Amino acid sequence: MIVIPNGTLSNSNLINNTKQERRLIDIEVGISYDADIKEVKKNSYRHSKKMKKRILDQDGVNIFVSSLADSSVMMGIRCWVPTSDYVATKWALK
């Protein structure tokens, strides 16, 4: 059970993401500085192709270096999916 005080509901905005037809998956994955970034991207695209039924083709999958952290290179993965497939696809991409 989740209890939300009335004040919180009346004083803030509530967003119902499940009402939208599609949702953006935005994931960050850390890789070693020694890793071959081109190979990581190639493998990530190959993995995402296995989920082509879930990922909306018109937008495709974007894989990019999002930041350079202290001990890893952070890779970003973004794609649009139907709302009904959001959770399953997000976990499959991780």
What is the compact description of this entry?
This protein is 28% helix and 30% strand. The chain is of the alpha+beta class and 94 residues long.
Description:
With 94 residues, the chain is α+β, with helices and mostly antiparallel strands. 28% of the residues lie in helices and 30% in strands. It is built from 3 helices and 3 strands. It has a 3-stranded antiparallel sheet with strand order 1-3-2, covered by helices on one side. The mean pLDDT is 89.
Question: What shape does the CA trace take?
Answer: extended
> Which segments are poorly predicted (pLDDT under 50) over 5 or more consecutive residues?
none
What is the CA-based Rg, rounded?
Answer: 17 Å
Q: Which structural class do the helices and strands define?
A: alpha+beta
Strand content: 25-35%
**What string gives the helices and strands in order?**
HEHEEH
List keywords for this structure.
3 helices; extended; alpha+beta; 94 residues; three-stranded antiparallel β-sheet
Secondary structure layout plus pairing:
Elements: H1 6-10, E1 22-31, H2 37-49, E2 61-68, E3 73-82, H3 86-93
Antiparallel strand pairs: 1-3, 2-3
